[in-house]
Here is the input.
Amino acid sequence: MGIEITGVSKRFGDFVALDDVSLSIPSGQLTALLGPSGGGKSTLLRIVAGLESSDEGQVVIEGRDTTGVPAQKRNVGFVFQHYAAFKHMTVAKNVAFGLEIRKRPKAEVKAKVDELLELVHLTQFAHRLPSQLSGGQRQRMALARALAIEPSVLLLDEPFGALDAKVRKELRDWLRRLHDEVHVTTVFVTHDQEEALEVADSLVVINDGRIEQVGTPDDLYDKPASDFVLSFLGPVTTLGDRLIRPHDIEISRYEQAAVVDGPITRWTRVGFEVRLEVTPTDPRHPDPVQVVLTRSDATALGLHPGDHVWLRPQPGADAVVHA
Amino acid sequence: MASRTRAPRTAGAYVRRTLVAVYLFMLVVWPAALVVRHTFDGGLENLTTALSDPVVTAALRLTVVVAVWAVVINTVFGVGISMLLVRHEFRGRRVLSALVDLPLSVSPVVVGLALLLAYGGTNGVFGPTLEGLGLQIAFATPGIVMATAFVALPLVIREVVPVLEEVGTEQEQAARSLGAGGWQTFRRITLPSIKWALVYGVVLSLARSLGEFGAVKIISGNLIGQTQTATLVVEQKYQDFEQGSAYATSFLLALIAVAALVVVTVLRPKEDPDGD
Here is the structure.
């Protein structure tokens, strides 16, 4: 159940947006479609919603084949990056829209709208126009509007992309809590790996119109299936002929069995972190290696800029693949 | 909309302002004021004479009927063509967009002549067939409506198209995903967002339709008391040395158009500075 996507392809002229994508999204989960801009993740979401048609392939939502079913008959809630608020309607009218289209009795509409406005903390703004709300409030209104129709799935297209960093973080936590309350199958698109890792139950990494990997945040972070996934989910550096996360490198001032060695050529302190660059003496690997460690570790190891150090992967660092 | 800043009071600003004021006064305000002055030269006499002349009243009535029909037709097709131009990709879209501007660039006299060639009763292309069916177009009201609708065609479209482009399709897509069908989406989402552009286009169309002269003169045949519109009466009365009636009719024509513009300007809400 949930959403079953089978062999979906989409082209825009010569550009291949999606290339034979198959994916199964389980019911009741919060799934993130993660990838760089232009990778096809939004297109996939819009195909599920029926806002875009696929050239090939099939989408089954909660057991119902939606191929050829127009958007208005799919019962899918959709939230847009730029809110798509109905500007000429009040907040309450925006939320009531889907119910009024369905010709529900007035009392029922009012009760449902009140309940949803409560849920998104906009009760006191019910009679304002969208232009009188902040970006975060507008997006919460859009979410209430999408939830009003009791959708079988909720789709969010870069829902926090247009908001500033602080509001983005608040809404992210809030979405997670909301999902724990309503339990509707939710898919959201983002290019922000931190957002995806923090909020989602499972991640789908999409690049160049293909799925790179599907898994839980832990799986993807610790056991990336490809260099792309590894580098997209967090910072990486090259140690010898391997890619590794900078905080998974063991550093020592004393000669030890090491992959590379060389002087510390750059030293940047950012808050509690120290970011180092070590330039290997080995001419086969001339590129500087990034190492991250805490300030207290650096003090304990007695490191100073210019010191000659030996580097090797920390034991238990799984995130190592051949470069 | 970008907010306007108050211009600093420099000598240059005064010169520019004076130039604009003089230009508008010489070209628009003063000549129009002269018409008003001449209308009321002998008190209300010119107006009462004109309004008791059956030729003038018949012409005014015909003008109003024609203008209303032309505006209704242009509103319906104007919105339809605007939606087609903005919301759909199709072969020949640019050609259609250019064609819409044609009535602005072609002389109305040419329009009248062209319609006469197509719908003329004796030797037009469609005229004899339609007349056989009992429908007279040239030298009758339908022909006058067609000519008027033709010249006023671009006004609604040129007002509506930029607004449609600006509001984009996201609100419509949201309405679709919430279950609204095509007509519901249009009526509840699209129409309210283009409302003021449409009203403005309608008022401009009305003003243009009331004032059309060249195309109407040819297609109507200018039959006194039957197919003579108000603008044609103005010309005829002026040439027949009944200037008083000519001024009064001109005044009434201008009055309706100005009143419509004023009403819209008053009703139109202030632009929302944070409309998104």
About this structure: The longest strand of chain A covers residues 15-25. The interface with chain B takes residues 49-51, 70-78, 80, 82, 84-88, 97-98, 101-102, 131, 142, 145-146, 148-149 of chain A (CB under 8 Å). The CA atoms of residues 260 and 282 of chain A lie 7 Å apart.
